[in-house]
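Section 4.2 – Deliverable D4.2 (structural model, holo form)

The reporting period included a commitment to supply a predicted holo structure for the target in complex with beta-D-glucopyranose. Inputs used:
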Amino acid sequence: MSLTGQVAVVTGSSTGIGRAIALRLAQDGADICINYVHHAEDANAVQAEIKQTGRRAIVVCADVSQVPQARQLIAEAVAQLGGIDILVNNAGIEVIQPFLEVTEENYDRVLAVNLKGAFFCTQAAAQQMVRQGRGGRIINISSVHEDLAMPGNAPYCASKGGMRMMMRTVALELAKHNITVNDVGPGAIATPINRKTLENPQLLAALKAEIPLGRIGSPEDVAGVVSFLASPEAAYVTGSTYFIDGGLMRQTGAL
Ligand code: BGC
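Output (structure tokens):
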């Protein structure tokens, strides 16, 4: 198993894409720090599943948008699992609202979780990786919307566009420490963030019509690419985004 002996922290890993990534990295051999903010029972269920595979798994409640909590999350992983080799910045939210009606509160919340949270988790993890002196992997769960505009989702698009330039800049600064930094950009994936669209047959059909591969992606589709980026095979990959979108971004008139 390619990640045997490594420790991975996956933010927002009680459900959805984060959950699938936590399970996949555990299958690959890593010990996992699961993070949640609202649903302890879901996080505990992921922990139980991972423990069945023989890996160590801890659960840490932390709101990554609060910098002291983001730092505490990394510190807990280091204290309980002995270090950190892989950070997956997965925690993310969106509030669908026309631009003209976006409130300051919604803007602040989306930017704080999606961008500020990823920024300071990365900083805390990278400081530890530099101290350890054995390199590391930072993988951000961005979105096709780090590049593709989405009407009605302006704060989210701003956060993911910011994530892209954060990733590119931090990749350059951390390269000398052999820490790679990359984004994965999922398209439409069946997770709770998309529930309203997935439950509305008309919206769902319109979305599928935009996807050349003709289906909504699964969290496992994303986890497979994260697994690759975390693996030794991806040692020479840094500063890039991998889109996992069934061709959505290449579709003319997408969204
Ligand atoms: C958003 C979804 C959207 C999908 C494809 C994701 O990043 O969270 O709401 O359906 O991109 O546009």
